[in-house]
Amino acid sequence: MQQSLASRIAIALIGWAVALLLFFPIFWMVLTSFKTETDAITASLVFHPTLVSYAEVFQRANYLGFALNSVVIALGGTVLALLFSVPAAYSMAFHPTPRTRGTLLWMLSTKMLPPVGVLVPIYLLFKFTGLLDTRTGLIIIYALMNLPITVWMLFTFYKEVPNEILEAGRMDGASTWGELVHILLPLTLPGVASTGLLSLILCWNEAFWSLNLTSSQAAPLTAFIASFSAPEGLFFAKLSAASTMAVAPILVFGWFSQKQLVQGLTFGAVK
Amino acid sequence: MATLSLRNIRKAYGPAEVIKGVDLEIDDREFVVFVGPSGCGKSTLLRMIAGLEPITSGELQIDGVRVNERGPADRGLAMVFQSYALYPHMTVAQNMGFALKLAKVPAAERDRKVREAARILQLEPYLERRPKDLSGGQRQRVAIGRAIVRAPKVFLFDEPLSNLDAALRGQTRIEIARLHEELGATMIYVTHDQIEAMTLADKIVVLQAGRIEQVGSPLELYHHPANMFVAGFIGSPRMNMLPVSVLESTAAGITVSLPSGAALTVPSTGDVAPGTALTLGLRPESLRPDPDGQLAGTVKLVERLGGLTLLHVETEGREDVIVQIEGLSMLNINHPVRLAADAAALHLFDAAGMALPALTRHSLVA
Ligand SMILES: Nc1ncnc2c1ncn2[C@@H]1O[C@H](COP(=O)(O)OP(=O)(O)OP(=O)(O)O)[C@@H](O)[C@H]1O
Ligand SMILES: [Mg+2]
């Protein structure tokens, strides 16, 4: 399709505007983290950059402990979710029953429920089972939280694999496990990888459950940030420094996996 | 060695029965072709034999042993799919060797068998390529190679040539016939292509709406169709059907009157009273223009195919009749024409569509 110069410029401008809008908060956060607390409450762009906030944040809290929790919980939740959703999506895509579509929609509909609605029951369940403030507890809740999304994504990737290829595998003597490992997973690897990446990012940034179900032992970086916002009033510079340190790992990770993510999300798994 | 035996095989998807009781015996080394209109259940029947679709009821035996409960890989069959269904992430060699790898055949032996199959199918230059870098015909051969490598007792083909162009289809058809000779395996082949069915089959199974209409050799189906459906389905252009009524039944055959009033004696037998309404079947290739012919009409369309000419003739009874003539015909549109039929090639069908038995069997049909 041929587009006029004017409309191309307009599209470029809108694109840049949206990108700037999305990027601005992050930019401001990083900027603020290098200010002193007095500079931080001004909107000034002129200031003496300092690492004071970072030093204070490091002094006051065990960053590495939180970060380790984040890594373990995000990886654990993602692996657990994939462990269940890979076979679930396989069964839905290749051995559907009349109820498969309904089940998929129902799974997705659970994402429409505000999590706070089930906070009390979940909290009590965790309390009785001794899962409060444990990594295991968060891994379980994160996996459950992402399961509808990972099943849906994998389902759509699997759907692109012709059934006959799997049937050929079955004729060749592949068991269900063999079909998955030798045929389906290699064919949908980009899709499975982007599903995993998305799950990692969602787990990393999750704040509601981590704040409500952990206190000290299993608290991830989201709790680490929050700990700088509450008790002694707002300290913007320190809060920004903590936030920057919390998002930096996933930002870097996201940057490197960006190509993979976009590819997996936009193109078919095979072809 | 492989014989198959299907005993009252049925398939239902929920309340809808799509295979309604199929009985069939397949001999060792036989080439059996399933034909029938789209949706009649050819693929379903083949997939039940393959083990890809559970059999709702009935029994499937291979070499006299019930295999209903066995998985696809444990039946000693290999299947070639219409879409080829090659593994896109594997090379040609890996595609062909996959079954052997799963069966834990040592790499050296695997390699030898893959090379042997590649040699038979002239695929040696492509062993390291991926399927996407092959032409349609080459992919087809890889799919066949993948089946050969496993040395199955029975080969199953589901419309294997329908994605190829006409020239390649003819070539591959000959290839498959040669393979059947060479490998001495039992083959079951689904197609809706008449020529494939007639040229490849030892035995054709005509299916309609989940039932077998007739089983027989290609020539048997052509010369002695059991009913109007088979008569219309086998042979191209299709058999002409004219409504007739019985005049008399003698030792020489049944004499019927055509819509135009002319009488014709068909060498068939049957317990038919004069006046009974029957259907007369005339193959286009058994009709010829003849000044003394019983059938009169007007040419409405001439199709010149080079070696053959097809005349569409409107007869006095208002029925359209197709006539196939060797070579060129000088007849043109709106020409009046009289047609004569080769009496031995005429067929009569009763009101239920069943063929009346012919007095003599065709010399080439047992
Ligand atoms: N999974 C299914 N659920 C319900 N009905 C089905 C299913 N699969 C096939 N059918 C029905 O079974 C019938 C036979 O289908 P089948 O694929 O065997 O036909 P076919 O003879 O191979 O036709 P074609 O020549 O078009 O390939 C069809 O009417 C089809 O609608
Ligand atoms: Mg079919």
TrEMBL record, chain A:
CDD domains: TM_PBP2. Its main location: membrane. It is found in: Cell membrane. Residues 67-257 form the ABC transmembrane type-1 domain. The chain crosses the membrane at residues 9-28, 64-84, 104-126, 138-158, 180-204, 235-256. PROSITE patterns: ABC_TM1 (PS50928). Gene3D superfamilies: MetI-like. The keyword Transport applies. SUPFAM superfamilies: MetI-like. It holds the Pfam family BPD_transp_1. It comes from the Bacteria. PANTHER family: INNER MEMBRANE ABC TRANSPORTER PERMEASE PROTEIN YCJP, MALTOSE TRANSPORT SYSTEM PERMEASE-RELATED. Belongs to the binding-protein-dependent transport system permease family. This is Carbohydrate ABC transporter permease. It comes from Endosaccharibacter trunci.
UniProtKB/TrEMBL annotation, chain B:
Residues 4-234 form the ABC transporter domain. Signal peptide: none annotated. GO terms for molecular function: ATP binding. The keyword Ribonucleoprotein does not apply. Pfam families: ABC_tran, TOBE_2. It comes from the Bacteria. The keyword Transport applies. CDD domains: ABC_MalK_N. Keywords: ATP-binding, Nucleotide-binding, Transport. Belongs to the ABC transporter superfamily. PANTHER family: MALTODEXTRIN IMPORT ATP-BINDING PROTEIN MSMX, MALTOSE_MALTODEXTRIN IMPORT ATP-BINDING PROTEIN MALK. This is Sn-glycerol-3-phosphate ABC transporter ATP-binding protein UgpC.
